[in-house]
Amino acid sequence: MRYVRHRLPMLFALIPIAAGTLWLAYWPPKIHRAFIAVDGKYVVTATQLEVDPDRWEVRRLDLKSGETERMSRMVGSMPFGYSPDDRWVTATVDERGVTSFSILHLDDFSEEPIGDADRWKLVPQILDEQRLVGFDRDGNLLVVNRSTGTEQHFSLPPSNAFRLTFHVPTPDRIVTFERPQGGGADKMRLISLTEPVAQIAEWNSAFSGDSDDEWYILNPDADRLQRLSLESGSVVEEYSLAPLFEKVPGAEVGTILPQRKLIGLYDPIEKRCLLYNLNTHEIVDCLLPDVAGVVVSKDESFLVLGQDPVGKLKGVSIFDLDTLKTRWLHLPTQELATWELSRDQSQLITVFYDGSVTVLDIADGEVVRTYRSRALVLPIFGCMLGGFIAWWVLWVRAGNRLESSPLIDAIFLNGLIAAAFIVRVNLSGSMRDPSRMAYQTAQSLFASWLVLLTCWAVFGKTRWSLRILAPLFGIAGTFIFVLLNFRGDHLGVWQLVIGAFVVATLCTLWFGLLRRWGYSLMCSDRRAICSARDRRHLPLRDLFFITAAVAALLAVVRLVSPHTFAAREAAELALIAITVSLNGVAATWAALSRRHWIVRLVLLSLVVLAAGTVLPAVFPDHRHWYHWRFIAKYHAFIALFTVATALIFRSHGWRFRRVPQGGCHDAINLL
Q1: How confident is the model over 381-393, as pLDDT tens digits?
Q2: Which of 84, 121, 185, 271 is deepest in the core (most CB within 10 A)?
Q3: 593-602 burial, b if ≥16 CB within 10 A, otherwise e?
């Protein structure tokens, strides 16, 4: 009570900081996936948030006013069948599965129920203003007219294949696609929706593309490109691909440009996207590398290419089909979520993972306008962080004046940070994405605890059988929490458990070397007390505690299915454990050493940078600025949390000191 009673005003000062933190926790975080629809007035985004990966947030951005309106509820599925009159099909999903469908009108966010969901096997798509198309529970084609209530059926052969429908420009025609689950050729059918519904043509193909009233397919042998008529389903024209495969063995055919008689293809050997002329058999190889996604303009005057150098969508470019040169390349500082052409083909709309939208001019790539719906997050987060750091410092200084235990302050302040992470993860987090910033920072916090618990186990005064309990219970408690939150990711939990044991073992080795060289932890404002001789016998109470800790650890390991690490995974885990332990020991020494703070800061910074460089230096696929920054940031957080906790003890007079051999050692006695 005395610990809290004398600092009640400071606890009240924490209320606005906690309120701001909760507000940020509820604020929509980074999106997973986005679908955008663009017309002359709106940019509509449907984003799969980390709040709940099974639900989607729909926002509509007014391009003239810049105002963003959010749909009042989260929809239960990704949007299906966007139509030019601004409609989407959404689904309501609960623990029983899909229970209802509705049409979402984007002009006012009104919803129009479709009807009975039991007759549909999958979410239906919008065929035109009145009709919906999809598959019924038996896998047959079903077309429903919402105005008249009439239904059209077409029976398909029984199959366990995955089926979907393609819209085609020709009225009253639709193409069904079928991919067998056990393997085999993809099958397509051209269906006429006039009465009676009938199949016009059928073909096997691994590729298709439409243009006006024509459809392009690869023949079953994949050596000819065939142009079909969507009216009759007959072959109108054929193009031999033998010259292509002679020049580019194993080429993968992609986008078709029928007006220019070009096809896009991917070279799996050179890992480049190319253009191939069907008439002249020439290959255009001046496309930028690392292409991820291609969109052709309606007049086939340019291509929009996504740039994906390191597994992340980093930029977009415009490739001019008249000059066969790149018109411009846009590489923003942050990663793109998706992009789309405006309906008039004059602008490119890009959406980022923070929810911001940028409008680019197709002609020159200049930024026409930028919309940031979450622009307040960064400054408010900065204010909250600065306020908490100031509050932390004042709390520790008050503890010095009241002569309270540094251990109580360390537990209380670290507990607040851990509670904030738990709130952040559970209120607006996804357990399916452990690479999120919140999880990385929390992992750094737990790693700092493990380092300091190991430090106490080495330098503590109490007998070893009690000191070893701290890291054991720390590992057990941490990974019980991790296992509960990451159910199903057994390999990830197993790696964390093994990594924690290795880090604790290595930290024990490094701290043991410091103790061997004569270092000890001493308090400057207390009389040095000679360290008592360790008790070599093992009392029954200690045996009970150790057995309980080991049993808890074994329970964690037992719930995780054992995995055998590959050589690459084992090498990465070993390097991470070594760098984390060295970084933690260096941070502890820097926080509690008697040397000048500039020297300590420089040495610790060098250790952090070196630790962040090890993996990119050893493994080629990590040798990119993104990976180096990611790893160095992780080590910087470990050093930060370790130093912050150790500074609490420093403020109470604790220091690393080297005592002559045979002298007195004062150890931390906190039990």
Answers
A1: 888 888 888 888 8
A2: 121
A3: beeeeeebee
Write down the mean pLDDT value for the chain.
77
Partners of 201 in beta bridges: 190
CB atoms within 10 A of CB 221: 7
Cβ-based neighbours of 331, under 8 Å, separated by 6 or more: 307, 314, 315
DSSP state of 562: P
Burial zone of 455 (CB within 10 Å; 0-12 exposed, 13-18 middle, 19+ buried): buried
Residue with tokens 């003890």: 649
More confident site: 538 or 78: 78
What's the DSSP call for residue 549? H
Residues 6+ apart with CB under 8 A from 634: 440, 443, 444, 612
Residue 65 is classified by DSSP as T
**Residue 228: φ, ψ to 5°:** -105, 155
Q: Strand, coil or helix: what is 483?
A: helix
pTM of the model: 0.59
Could you tell me which of 101, 107, 90 has the C-alpha nearest to residue 39? 107
Band (pLDDT 50/70/90 cuts) for residue 576 is confident
Question: What is the distance between the terminal CA atoms of the chain, rounded to a whole angstrom?
Answer: 19
The residues, ordered by sequence, that sit 6+ positions from 563 with a Cβ below 8 Å of its Cβ are: 490, 491, 494
Contact (CB, 8 A) for 412 and 667: no
